[in-house]
């Protein structure tokens, strides 16, 4: 549990009815970091802190009396400060969410449905593309068979040219992935 969460939890039991005497804004003191995961974690912590402040505010308002006016003002100020801090932290996060996902959430549906639909769509398009590729391979094979019966010397020459071209392409691809010391370049895992 980080310090912002512990401040929220500590505040719910501090002064009775969840009233908190003082509160510091721990997320405002966090250093500026360019790491996207760290920025996202700061935003998540700020959201959790804001939810805690809203809960505390609810408790204060639900049992409001004249003595709780000052804590109510402090909580309102803390909420405004944290919301301002959340906006500043969110500006550092570059997260793009498709509108379809937001619409699903607004409709009360699970956003995983969007992921499932996108994957199913990709599978369907992949099957269509594979069918087209297989059809072209069949056409090519059929054409080569027909051409070989009609023009056997030209087809043999064509196959030799294709084999030489394929070998050259493979050699170039390997040369591009070779380091000066003979080792192969390896793609980094993401």
Structural notes for this entry:
With 190 residues, this protein is mainly α. 69% of the residues lie in helices and 0% in strands. The chain is built from six helices and no strands. It is elongated and about 105 Å long. It starts with a helix and ends in a 14-residue tail after the last helix. The N terminus is likely disordered.
Average pLDDT confidence is 80
Low-confidence stretches: 1-33
User: What profile does the largest beta sheet have?
Assistant: none
Count the strands? 0
Residue share in helices? 55-70%
Please tell me how large the radius of gyration is.
32 Å
H/E series: HHHHHH
Straight-line N-to-C gap: 28 Å
Shape: elongated
Secondary-structure content class: mainly alpha
**Strand residue percentage:** under 5%
How do you describe this structure in short?
This protein is an all-alpha fold. The protein is built from six helices and no strands.
Task: Set out the fold topology.
Blueprint: H1 3-12, H2 36-62, H3 69-91, H4 99-106, H5 112-150, H6 152-176
Helix pairs in contact: 1-2, 2-3, 5-6
List the main descriptive attributes of the protein structure presented here:
190 residues
């Amino acid at each position: 549990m980080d310090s912002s969460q512990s401040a929220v939890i500590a505040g719910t039991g501090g002064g009775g009815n969840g009233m908190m005497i003082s509160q510091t804004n721990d997320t405002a003191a966090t250093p500026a970091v360019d790491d996207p995961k760290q920025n996202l974690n700061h935003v998540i912590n700020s959201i959790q802190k804001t939810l805690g402040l809203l809960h505390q505010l609810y408790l204060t308002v639900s049992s409001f009396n004249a003595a709780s006016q000052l804590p109510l003002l402090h909580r309102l100020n803390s909420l405004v400060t944290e919301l301002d801090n959340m906006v500043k932290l969110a500006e550092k996060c570059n997260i793009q969410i498709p509108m379809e996902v937001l619409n699903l959430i607004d409709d009360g549906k699970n956003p995983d449905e969007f992921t499932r639909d996108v994957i199913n769509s990709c599978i369907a398009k992949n099957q269509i593309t594979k069918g087209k590729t297989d059809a072209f391979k069949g056409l090519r094979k059929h054409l080569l068979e027909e051409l070989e019966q009609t023009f056997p010397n030209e087809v043999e020459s064509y196959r030799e040219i294709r084999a030489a071209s394929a070998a050259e392409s493979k050699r170039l691809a390997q040369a591009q992935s070779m380091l000066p010391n003979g080792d192969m370049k390896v793609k980094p895992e993401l």
